[in-house]
UniProtKB/TrEMBL annotation:
This is Cobalt-dependent inorganic pyrophosphatase. InterPro entries: CBS_dom (IPR000644), CBS_dom_sf (IPR046342), Diverse_CBS-Domain (IPR051257), DRTGG (IPR010766), HotDog_dom_sf (IPR029069), Ser_kin/Pase_Hpr-like_N_sf (IPR028979), Thioestr_dom (IPR006683), WH-like_DNA-bd_sf (IPR036388). Coiled coil: none annotated. Its EC number is 3.6.1.1. Keywords: CBS domain, Hydrolase. One of its GO terms (molecular function) is inorganic diphosphate phosphatase activity. SMART domains: CBS.
Amino acid sequence: MTKNEQILLYIQGLPIGSKISVRQIAQAMEVSEGTAYKAIKDAEVEGIVSTIPRVGTIRVEKVEDKRIQQLTFAEILNIVEGHVIGGHEGIYKTISKFVIGAMALEEIAKYISEGDLLIVGNRDDVHKLALDKGCAILITGGFSCKEEIKKMANEKKLPIISTSYDTFTITSIINRNIQERLIRKQVLLAEGIMPKKLHYLENTCKVRDMKRMIEATGHSRFPVVDKNMHVIGIVTPRDIAGADDGDSIVDLMTEDPITIDKNTSVAYASHVMIWEGIEMVPVVDGKKLVGVVTRQDVIRGLQYIRNQPHMGESFEDILFHHCKVEETENGLKLTGEITPMMLNDLGIASAGVLVMLMSTAGHLVIKKQKHLDSVIDSFMVYFIKPLQMENKIEIQAEILNMGRKFYKVDILVFHEKEIVSKAMMSAKLLKR
């Protein structure tokens, strides 16, 4: 185990809420301050510590995927560009709900409870009520609070955050951030589809070891790692064909293979695998092997995504909801109109938005034909004519050519029966 890994284990063993400093870690682990600093930064990347302005670095509970919708007070602090004026030790706690304190004191009392964050201005009576109820406070307008309120917050470990934004702006910022988090939650990542059991070969293994692994696991492809669990190669049955049982795997493997990070989206992983023509890709955290993803894992993951209810809407979702989809004899068509959100700063339809809609139509017509997902290989736009707000458009997508692994789609955009844009899309199919 490396010194860095030992320090990370030490930090993980510290109580939640503990303050951490470079000097403290350096003395406790008998390392240089440079080594301690690097380990703390690595711990921050792993999500087990957090550095908070005017508070310092704190040991926090790692947020797993199941809790991704829950915000902490520390995250709110960054979102609202505020500063903590009391209750610093509670800044890592998660928020139950938000309450806006724009009502009488008696009414506020009915709505707040322990773990909430009350958004309010310069109202001392409301500040005290919130802390009595176990509720943290976000003071808007750049105001502070009385010293007795700060003392009370410190005792209860309930943060008081002050921000210069007004209440309306703050609620808009927080609402937008929550919407973005909901969309992120819907993005399935590589670590979410990796098989729980990880099979790999070490750089000291021989061909006989791989044959035993194939027989024991039923798998045929394996990542090869060094003593630090860093991926150095991939080996397949084709690599060992004709080799002796005593031959070293290192001499036969494919070196420096393509890898993906554990936070890589499944959709991006599918693109990489199709583009590179590979069946399995190692998943790493930093440089360390943490899993593998196969083409079958990716297909199952994409099917899972489609079957889940979507809580947040991406920009593409919002645009697509303004369109009507109809099947035609040779393909399909999307009909809709240019809305204000589709305009660029010159007041005409954004070329990027039109390309997004055209590529969506291309993917849909392939899906209709083969019932398979696809990734864009190339997308050529021949021309785009200006379109104004409220212009009615019709996008027609028709398959021109198809092979075992690819499709070519002709895409036309019409306005009042005139062709206003034309594109050609080539896409590869995601097959098992």
